[in-house]
Amino acid sequence: MIIADRKPFEEIKELTSKAKNILIAGCDSCVAVCLASGEKEVAVLASELRMQRKMDGLEGEIEEIVNVRQCENEYVDAMRDKVEKADLILSMACGVGVQTLAERFPDKLAYPALNTKFMGRPVEPGVWKENCEGCGHCILHLTGGICPVARCSKSMLNGPCGGSQGGKCEVDPEIDCGWQLIYDRLSRLGQLDALVEIMLSKDWSTSWSGGPRRVIKESAGV
Amino acid sequence: MKSGSNLEKVLSSGHFAVTAELGPPKSCDPEVVEKKAEILKGFADAVNITDNQTAIVRTSSIATGVIVARKGLEPVVQMTCRDRNRIAIQSDLLGAAALGIKNLLCLTGDHQSCGNHPQARGVFDLDAIQLIDMVRRMRDEKKFQCGEEMSVEPRFFIGAAANPFADPFEFQVIRLAKKVTAGAEFIQTQLIYNVEKFARWMKMVREMGLHEKTYILAGVGPIKSAGAARYMKNKVAGMDVPGEIVERLQAASDPKAEGIKLCLDIIEQVRAIEGVAGIHIMAIEWESAVPEIAERAGLLPRPQID
Amino acid sequence: MNQITEDFEPQIVAFCCRYCAYAAADLAGSSRIQYPPNVKIVLLPCSGKVDELYLLKAFEAEADGVYVAGCLEGTCHFLTGNLRAKKRVQYVKSLLDEVGIGGERLEMYNLSSAEGQRFAEIAREMTERIRALGPSPLNQRKSKEGAIK
């Protein structure tokens, strides 16, 4: 799922300082699971903002709304009544949600309250890690189900580099060396031969390097 | 004087500047470069050395620039953000300055999907404006992008590109202003075939006073045939080739001669526009056209300034 | 401003677990132990029931100070409720700091149902702390306006 994290309050305070009526729009999908959005988080931010704005002598109302997914027109369009009354929609969705709001409500400001981080999953309570970079051409079958693109700091396809020590990455001892993980897993599976082959340079045109991407599914309309 | 380059001297002394373009070869043959330099020498104040233009691998712009300089022709080294991050760019710029390069044109660069290695991962750590800002700070503040100080700074005359035919039309001038604010001291424009639109763009440039803060060199170039014109019109992004240009070349008995005549006409028209400080002649793989164009446009001899 | 401080009677909300602090308050009452009337008690089935929003809403409702009182660590009726409460209090302290109200206006206490004296002590301690800090920044604005009138 998409992992996000709330912006520091100072920054949110700054970007809402000129608005009068603010609608805080949460999303109950990915970012709710990583505790960045959802009803509780929306209510907490609303409460913080109400108090800060009262102290700063700012007028206006803070409204709250949470819908199932902020990345789908149908859900977003249903917000229209509340949006009408706001000068600013402060989105607590991922970047996709913010852009959906901007597109559906062209006359309203839609600002992000979160920093969208990556595609990943929870590894222990309160900790999420990146797993997928969406490179557009999956090679997990070659690397023991551990992605070198997302989990090696250099996205090396023929790793690990000389900076791998004790299973950790040279970038940060908190980061596991992705290639150590791949090696361990393939070794366990008895498939180390797979690592002997040179993996040729990757076609990055399917990734971010090819510009904004899209997926078309012919069968979708069937 | 920021760099003391010939181009900077010509422009700052109020002469109408002429720059040309020299594309490095798709090989490591220095003779190709030397031959092109021989052709252009004496007909331009400086020549741009392209940096893997259209994302096609060629000899490096810095190495080619050094070969050109040895031949007595001043290079304008082009630097793009596509293939290098800020570390590599700064390192290469220090190297270029150490080898005597004085003019630098800062570009974002064509996307790798345009070239012969569409599988390549694009870098784009910086964009052109960030690059200009970084180079200016290196020169004027003696600082690396991270803020660390350096003992000897690279003294470049900093240039940038502008496309009067890109969209949104009004915003392109604002973007130009950003480049000027970042530190661009000269601007070379995209090839101009739609003079009327260029004139409108220049009007906006003057309204913002940008022509007084930077030297604007109008991009011009001869077209060899109606087919080439049609290709540029339909296939090349960011180009504006009006239909009558294609027709004019189509109707000509000698299209090459007509192409040069057309280029001369455009030079005459853009020279008359207030705020145009020079021309940038792009005749890639037709370098031999440059002396004729410079001659017939009455731009010779080139000024010698000490 | 001095005058406001002198006249200032803090409004304090205490979220109390029924198995310890609430029972201790009862004991304090029946033992006729005095504690400041500034403290308004909210009964919780366990301190672990306390939610970040309860705490924030109390401040929004113009409390000058808030505290949560749960069982001694290791003796929670629901095993870990008081430990959860402790984490939430820590978290809300950070929110109050970033908003500008100040985390020191919120506290977590632990006591047993046998400690009527301790309950009164905590009430006094918190009242004095908040009295020294002055009105919540949320209320200061109003106090100032009130003073002008």
UniProtKB/TrEMBL annotation, chain A:
Short name of any one Pfam family annotated for the protein: DUF5981
Q: Which domain of life is it from?
A: Bacteria
Where does the record place the Methylene-tetrahydrofolate reductase C-terminal-like domain?
A: 111-205
Q: Which InterPro entries match?
A: DUF5981 (IPR022026)
The protein here is known as: Methylene-tetrahydrofolate reductase C-terminal-like domain-containing protein
Task: Please tell me the species this chain comes from.
Answer: Candidatus Hakubella thermalkaliphila
From TrEMBL, chain B:
Keywords of the record, alphabetical order, are: FAD, Flavoprotein, Oxidoreductase
Instruction: State its cofactor.
Output: FAD
Gene3D superfamilies to which the protein is assigned, alphabetical: 3.20.20.220
**Pathway the protein acts in:** One-carbon metabolism; tetrahydrofolate interconversion
The reaction(s) annotated as catalysed by this protein in its Swiss-Prot or TrEMBL entry are: (6S)-5-methyl-5,6,7,8-tetrahydrofolate + NAD(+) = (6R)-5,10-methylene-5,6,7,8-tetrahydrofolate + NADH + H(+)
A UniProt-annotated Pfam family: MTHFR
Might you report a single GO cellular component term? cytosol
Family membership: Belongs to the methylenetetrahydrofolate reductase family.
Q: What is this protein called?
A: Methylenetetrahydrofolate reductase
Automatic annotation (TrEMBL), chain C:
Check the record and name the InterPro entries matching this protein. Answer: MvhD/FlpD (IPR003813)
**Pfam family for this entry, one:** FlpD
Domain of life per record? Bacteria
Which residues does the UniProt record annotate as the domain F420-non-reducing hydrogenase iron-sulfur subunit D?
12-134
User: What molecular function terms (GO) are annotated for this protein?
Assistant: iron-sulfur cluster binding; metal ion binding; oxidoreductase activity
Alphabetized, the UniProt keywords read: Iron, Iron-sulfur, Metal-binding, Oxidoreductase
Q: What is this protein called?
A: F420-non-reducing hydrogenase iron-sulfur subunit
